[in-house]
Amino acid sequence: MKKLALILCVFAGGILLINAHYLPMWGDPESPASAHLSPFFIENAYAHTNAPNMVAVVLADYRSYDTMFEAAVVLAAGLACFFLLRSRGKGRKGGPHYYRHIPTGATIRIDEKGKLPREDSKAFRPIDALWTPYDPIIRTTCRCLIPFLQIYSLYVLAHGHYSPGGGFQAGVVLGATIILLAISHNLKTSIQRMSERTAALWSIIGVAIFAGTGLICLLLGMDYLNYEILAPFLLSDAVMARSHSILIVEIGVTMAVMAVMVWIYYNLSSAGQQDEGL
Amino acid sequence: MDAVAYFVGKYNYWGCIFLFFLGMYAMISKTNLVKKIIGLFIFQTSIILFFISASFKHDATLPILMEESKGAIDPVMYLNPLPHVLMLTAIVVAVATLGVALTLTVKVYRIYGTLEEDEINRVIQSH
Amino acid sequence: MITLDIIVFTLIIFCAIGALTVKDLMAAAIVTSAYSFLICLLLAVMGAVDVAFTEATVGAGVSTVFFVATVFQTTRRTKD
């Protein structure tokens, strides 16, 4: 099998290498990729939307169908992970359980047959089987870092018209802060801040904001996702309406991507049980 | 000298083709499922590199409009923004599909107790 | 300019081969993270700053966390 794969790859690679001389030279301004459509985008992006970052304009305005369905694909991936892995069982496996007695700080081990404390008990808190004492340096550093990372992600979202950044990047950074909380503390702390239900709801609301913006345009008598018709609602002219609408749909993308990243992490790191994390 | 200029002028294609077939070879020949997924990841990034190198132009700047040139815009001055957009969305979808692939891996491990393809086949055949 | 590209490209190819040959899946996940980061560097050199930003957050950040979570839930052992 290995030899066959090697022969196949070398053969197909050889064909590609022989035909590589039809490809344009690297950095050629006359290459076909930059000859047909992109001059139109470069020349008209600022005039149409008043946003200097052409990538954001093409992403959320000229090719917004593309971006909308990409957000839907991300949502579908989150749903797929949920349906594949999530198990609603109590998760009470055999073996010992570990509890922390909060007033004294002692760790208690209860064997398989032993009587467990009540679930709503204030004095005992269940802890992971692989529990290790958390390093105070890591916890404190992450606690200090997370608010700034979240503010930075909002900056990336809001400044996407003028600098690199936008909905996808902001969403991933925002999701990464919650994953960082789950890694530095534990999964339960993170789920208390943002439950699975919230994550599912946010991802659906995010895609719905994007699709709903397009639907409003359609109901008002314009093409789907043609933002110019929204000008009276956004209290601006047609050009600024497109600029503001880019921000609105990018907020939707941010919510969807952020929630789906967190959702996949919750299911993957606990194998669907959501009791003991990484 | 001409041959050297030819090789250096298209170095990105050689790199992309190498990474492409490295990923493909790993996907076919490796038996461990996580290694297969790493091969898939290399496959995806090679295609991203190919598209981005198609958007490059010599003596051009980033696709963010400069303050002084808002009046008359020369398309030769700016990089092609279209492949950037396509690949930006492709990366995020790649990580979403990576999550699904790894979820399936965890599921397979829970059922068969191994990640090696040949051992999984043996378990299936013995039933 | 072009020499920097070629140096980074060589490192990328070494990282890709390393990620596929190393015998420990946790190490493979970390080498994949390094590979992603070098790809991000190359994209930034090529002027695709938005894509480089996405690759840095997604490829080197979140996908590594996913790999590590999977390896943590399954096994580090591999035959190849």
Automatic annotation (TrEMBL), chain B:
UniProt-recorded name of the protein: Cation:proton antiporter subunit C
Major subcellular site: membrane
UniProt KW Transmembrane keyword: yes
Keyword Transmembrane (UniProt): yes
Matches recorded under InterPro entries: CPA3_antiporter_subunitC, NUOK/Mnh_C1-like
GO cellular component: membrane
Superkingdom as given in the UniProt entry: Bacteria
Membership in a protein family: Belongs to the CPA3 antiporters (TC 2.A.63) subunit C family.
Keyword list, A-Z: Membrane, Transmembrane, Transmembrane helix
Recorded topology in the membrane: Multi-pass membrane protein
Chain segments annotated as transmembrane: 12-28, 37-56, 85-106
Pfam families, per database record: Oxidored_q2 (PF00420)
Subcellular location per the Swiss-Prot or TrEMBL entry: Membrane
Source species of the chain: Desulfobotulus mexicanus
